[in-house]
Specification:
Radius of gyration: 22 Å
CATH class: Mainly Alpha
Number of strands: 0
Largest sheet: none
Number of domains: 1
Organism: Pyrocoelia pectoralis
Oligomer: single chain
Distance between the termini: 50 Å
Structural class: mainly alpha
Membrane topology: Multi-pass membrane protein
Order of helices and strands: HHHHHHHHHHHHHHH
Keywords: Membrane, Transmembrane, Transmembrane helix
Number of helices: 15
InterPro entries: AA_transpt_TM (IPR013057)
Shape: globular
GO molecular function, one term: L-amino acid transmembrane transporter activity
Length: 458
């Protein structure tokens, strides 16, 4: 055990995995000159590749977060029947959009003869290989996507901090009634261990974090189901349909819960066997199928159990005076804490490679800047979490503005631009992507309006 501790040094935290640093040659080759036999998988050099199982664990962790706890509240805003159907539909759309984005990235890799591309590089290159009138926007698109990724995952982990603070406060108030501290103090205390854990920079080394987080969340999920089914469920106190004005909140919450678009390319790019990512029984379908099923179950039965009294997080509905319920809260806090690193990884990777790395020379200086960047990121998320303590509008805002845009609108646009000359019979690809864009814009406008109004009134 001692040897494991002493072997942990700064070298273990250096960022050496190539994720999104490949640049596309500015000259566009004709289709006739492209080498269709180029296989990007054979040319990927990843110093610390992740196994297929590890990639599956990461993808499950990326999609299984605090969103699962918000699903009963989401059903409360849609109704039992509408919520059930809509959850399955949104789950399918999110999975499909991830698939077309990964496929687009692989197509571009084959055309440009580069082994791998990150999300921003894929989007920029799609415009570069698209219609001539759009090629000049390639650099701007790449920059916009990078900024959107950082914003999305920065705000997403702010939700984690708020959730951890609320859960710990509830437990401490029960165990030690004489101690009365504000939620913001607990959120600030969370910063201390996060400052240490976020120094891990390799995706491979985060697999144990994701595995433990998944196990904790599944145990908590099982105990929550016990509380849900410990009495006969009564559907008379729930609505099958809710007011249309509440549906945007449902939509944004479900998109927030399911969407993990930012971690897709890092996971796929660092796989030891990337050919296992897509396919009928590939990593993507297995992970997202599991996520959709779990979310639908907890949403349906959680709302059926607690009805209109369903809180923004179902753990807040569990009886805090019971030890079993307390264990659920602790397990979920642990799971969310361990998920922070994986979610922050995306934003930190972009900031480092896009902004800081080109300006830093030398290993010692590089390590110092990395440590400073990661500490500043954690402090920033805690400051936002302390400033905005209402969990529900934050989830709605991140889901509607950030994840609906990145997870649905962006893949539809990229698919259209990249395949502009081959839109298919009756331009089915264009029609399909217009539908996805409209769906995303509806979630964006309606969800952000409700979220901003709630934040102003809170």
């Amino acid at each position: 055990m001692k040897s494991k501790v002493t072997s942990l040094n700064l070298d273990n935290f250096t960022s050496t995995t190539t994720l999104a640093t490949n640049e596309i040659n500015a000259s566009i080759q004709s289709k006739e000159s492209l080498n269709d036999e180029y296989n990007p998988f054979e040319h990927r050099i990843v110093e610390h590749p992740t196994s297929t199982i590890g990639s599956l664990i990461h993808l499950l962790k990326g999609a299984l977060g605090t969103g699962i706890l918000a699903m009963p509240h989401a059903f409360k805003n849609a109704g039992l029947l509408v919520g059930s159907v809509a959850t399955l539909v949104i789950g399918f759309l999110c999975t499909y959009c991830i698939r077309i984005l990964v496929s687009a990235s692989r197509d571009i890799c084959r055309k440009s003869k580069v082994p791998s591309l990150g999300l921003a590089e894929t989007c920029g290159a799609a415009f570069q290989y698209g219609p001539k009138s759009l090629r000049k926007y390639s650099g701007a698109v790449k920059l916009i996507v990078d900024v959107a990724l950082v914003t999305t995952y920065f705000m997403g982990v702010c939700v984690y901090i708020v959730f951890i603070g609320e859960s710990i406060e509830q437990l401490v108030n029960h165990w030690f009634p004489k101690i009365q501290m504000d939620t913001r103090i607990y959120s600030t205390i969370t910063m201390v261990p996060l400052l240490l854990s976020t120094q891990i920079r390799q995706l491979k080394y985060l697999v144990p974090f994701s595995l433990l987080s998944n196990i904790s969340l599944l145990i908590a999920f099982g105990i929550t189901l016990y509380y849900i089914f410990n009495e006969t469920l009564n559907t008379s106190n729930v609505a099958l349909f809710e007011s249309a004005s509440r549906f945007p909140t449902f939509l944004s919450t479900v998109i927030f819960a399911m969407e993990g678009i930012g971690i897709i390319m890092p996971i796929e790019n660092t796989m030891k066997h990337p050919e296992h990512f897509l396919g009928c029984f590939g990593v993507l379908n297995i992970a997202m199928g599991t996520v959709v099923a779990v979310y639908a179950i907890i949403g349906f039965f959680g709302y059926t159990k607690f009805g209109e009294g369903t809180e923004a997080s179902i753990t807040l509905n569990l009886p805090v005076e019971e030890s079993l319920a307390q264990s659920v809260k602790l397990l979920v806090v642990l799971a969310v804490f361990l998920t922070y690193n994986l979610q922050a990884y995306v934003a930190l990777d972009v900031i480092w490679k896009r902004v800081l790395s080109p300006k830093v020379d030398g290993k010692l200086k590089s390590n110092f800047v990395q440590i400073t960047m990661r500490c500043s990121f954690v402090v920033g998320t805690v400051i936002i979490a302390v400033a905005v303590r209402n969990l529900e509008p934050i989830i709605t805002l991140v889901g509607s503005v950030c994840l609906s845009t990145l997870g649905i609108f962006l893949p539809a646009v990229i698919d259209t631009v990249l395949h502009w000359e081959e839109l298919g019979f009756l331009k089915w690809r264009l029609i399909k992507n217009i539908f996805l864009c409209l769906f995303s814009l509806i979630a964006l406008v309606s969800g952000s309006t409700i979220a901003i109004r709630s934040l102003i009134n809170s």
